[in-house]
Write a structure and sequence with these properties.
The protein is mainly alpha-helical. The protein is built from 3 helices and no strands. The termini are far apart.
Length: about 90
């Protein structure tokens, strides 16, 4: 799709120096895709901020508790895997 976008002359000049005039559109498209991905991630982080509380997960209250939780979880997973039939 073709579109018309107004850009500052200095910005266009820097893009042209960096990638060349013939690759300008591709560069701008990639930049927009990167910005969209970043904005989507920021929105997801804002939407999910606070969904895990210390009250609901006291096992994650301190770095030491988190480390212990990870070790226990991995140990339980390994025990479960050992019980699976090997075929």
């Amino acid at each position: 799709m073709r579109t018309h976008v107004m850009l500052d002359d200095n910005v266009v000049g820097e893009v042209d120096i960096l990638v060349g005039r013939r690759k300008r559109s591709r560069f701008v498209e990639e930049a927009i895709r990167e910005k969209l991905a970043r904005e989507k991630l920021l929105n997801a982080l804002k939407d999910t901020a606070g969904v895990l509380s210390r009250e609901d997960h006291p096992e994650w209250d301190t770095p030491e508790k988190v480390a212990a939780w990870v070790r226990d979880t991995r140990r339980h997973d390994m025990e479960r895997l050992r019980r699976l039939p090997h075929g």
